[in-house]
Design brief:
Blueprint (H helix, E strand, L loop, with lengths): L2 H15 L16 E9 L7 E9 L21 E6 L2 E9 L12 E7 L7 E7 L5 E7 L7 E2 L13 H4 L2 E5 L7 E12 L5 E5 L3 E5 L2 E5 L8 E5 H11 L9 E13 L1 H11 L21 E15 L2 H5 L8
Parallel strand pairs: 1-16
Antiparallel strand pairs: 1-2, 2-5, 3-4, 3-6, 4-5, 6-7, 8-9, 9-14, 10-11, 10-15, 12-13, 15-16
Length: 327
């Protein structure tokens, strides 16, 4: 997190709280702090592929009010970062992303660890010792596993050729109401072009709305809700879009439809909402600061996970659009 976020918050707050003064300044007093951002990327399918990522940086100040004037990389190298799960400490190793360059001409530095046998609901912690001896700490509770419920139970292959009288006009997936959580649902169609063995993906809209005489797709967004619905007509439209405008449909091998749900824990949800400030009960006032749960510093420590389910397409359904594939 960089200083300009604090500058902006202080500037707005000052406009609202104070009358005009000759010595008014939109900048608050600068205090050197470390910023620790760390998240646990959980795998609850096999419990064997959990990843922990972290970055460390310093707040910085500049002359004037333009943060881009800073020419010193604030990223911190040489930190000792440990992840504590059930009193077992795992050290995160320092590395650089050599495929990316920062605006300072350096490679981004990050810390990471690959872990096995990490289970839900446990309270975990992180500690980071800076090169100057400063120690930052935080804790969070790992997400619990949830189960999907479906409005239509596909026992074998996916198709929209079903009895709509009994099943309705939309495929609804429910995960249940959980307080203080944000969810990112998404539906994708997986296919291969020309047997290249390189998968491509077509996003599936939830529905279409008529605007200015034209139909526009409505895609799922971030939500605090407990379910998402995809109209069968919208799924059909996504199938059409894969080879739209191409007369050679035979080169598109359409394989399966995938539902993916990214879930954030309470800490990450509050952090995301404090930045965007537009999610229902998480919305914040303009004079509120960015959420942090880091002791002796600022930043965020939380967990997220991605839950995925998929269905192979029914062959007759795929062929109705002119594509090979399905089962």
């Amino acid at each position: 997190m960089k200083k300009f976020l604090l500058f902006a918050a202080a500037f707005i707050y000052s406009l609202l709280s104070f009358s005009c003064k000759e010595d008014f300044s939109p900048k608050i007093e600068f205090k050197q702090k470390y910023v620790l951002n760390c998240y646990v990327d959980l795998d609850y399918d096999q419990y064997t592929n959990t990843k922990v990522y972290a970055t460390v940086s310093k707040l910085y100040d500049v002359d004037g009010f333009t943060p881009s004037k800073n020419n010193i990389d604030p990223t911190v190298s040489g930190a000792e970062i440990y992840f504590n799960y059930r009193d077992i400490f795992y050290q995160l190793k320092e590395d650089t992303n050599r495929a990316v360059r920062t605006r300072y001409g350096t490679n981004p530095i990050y810390y990471s660890a690959n872990l096995q046998n990490i289970y839900p609901n446990y309270t975990v912690s992180v500690s980071a010792r800076m090169p100057d001896g400063t120690v930052l700490t935080a804790q969070t509770q790992l997400l619990e596993a949830v189960q999907f419920k479906y409005s239509y139970l596909y026992r074998k292959y996916f198709t929209t050729f079903i009895n709509r009288f009994y099943s309705g006009n939309a495929f609804t997936i429910t995960w249940g109401k959980i307080d203080n959580r944000l969810f990112f649902p998404e539906m994708l169609i997986e296919y291969i072009i020309d047997d290249t063995h390189k998968f491509s993906y077509e996003k599936v809209p939830c529905s279409y709305i008529k605007k200015d005489g034209k139909y526009e797709p409505v895609y799922p967004g971030i939500t605090t809700g407990e379910s998402i619905s995809f109209e069968y007509a919208a799924i059909d439209s996504a199938m059409v879009n894969i080879g739209k405008g191409d007369n050679d449909k035979e080169k598109y091998f359409v394989a399966k439809i995938i539902f993916q749900l990214v879930e954030m824990d309470a800490s990450l949800s509050k952090y995301y909402s404090s930045i965007h400030g537009s999610i229902d009960e998480y919305s914040i006032r303009l004079d509120e600061s960015v959420y942090s749960n880091i002791n002796n510093g600022i930043g965020i420590f939380g967990s997220k996970r991605t839950i995925t389910n998929s269905w192979w397409f029914d062959s007759s359904y795929v062929r109705s659009f002119g594509y090979p594939g399905g089962h």
